[in-house]
Amino acid sequence: MAGGALFTGCTIDDEADVIENNYVFEAEAFEISNVDFVANANGNYAEVLYDFGDSPLIESDVVLVYRLSDASTNTTDVWELIPRTIYLEGTDELDYDFNFTRNDLLLYMDATFALADAPAYTQNQVFRVVIIPAFDNSARMNVTDYKSVIERYNIDDSNLKTLSVK
């Protein structure tokens, strides 16, 4: 994950790396494809747990998760930052959300109806996970725009690593 390497000095540059307390922190991105949410016994909640692998997150890392809401027909995919609520017919709604620890990421969804009735939202979903250093004062950046985030951190998203189901 976003890791540290020893450097001298304590500065912040304009590139994707942030140097703080003699460590350099780099942003990373992952893709999770073919996510199939399986509803719980009540039928309105589902979750999938992913492992960050051998390199746990650094305590100060910021995790952003985006869901592919519209696949490209004109070379531009539409990525929505989650948490996200989608309002459907009548009073039906569903929520995508996540939480994380240093070692794993939990993607989950909750709905006001049976998730089995909405396979377009539960099956074959694609997510992008972007890990950025908190030392970057990224709160001033518009993190809702996936393209802006990856451009800011010089992330090449043409060949992303993947996360494994835990």
Description:
This protein has one domain (28-165). The longest helix is centred in the last third of the chain and has 7 residues, at 146-152. The protein contains 2 helices and 12 strands; from the N terminus they run βββββββββαβαββ. The protein is globular. The protein is mostly beta strands. It is 7% helix and 42% strand. The relative contact order is 0.28.
Q: Low-confidence stretches at least 5 residues in length (pLDDT < 50)?
A: 2-22
Structural category: mainly beta
User: Count of helical segments?
Assistant: 2
- Average the pLDDT over all residues and give the rounded result: 83
Helix content: under 10%
Total beta strands:
12
Secondary-structure element order, as H and E? EEEEEEEEEHEHEE
Report how far the terminal alpha carbons are from each other.
16 Å
Strand order of the largest sheet: 6-5-10-3-11
Output the radius of gyration: 17 Å
What number of domains? 1
Largest sheet: 5 strands, mixed
What is the overall silhouette?
A: globular
Report the β-strand fraction as a percent range: 35-45%
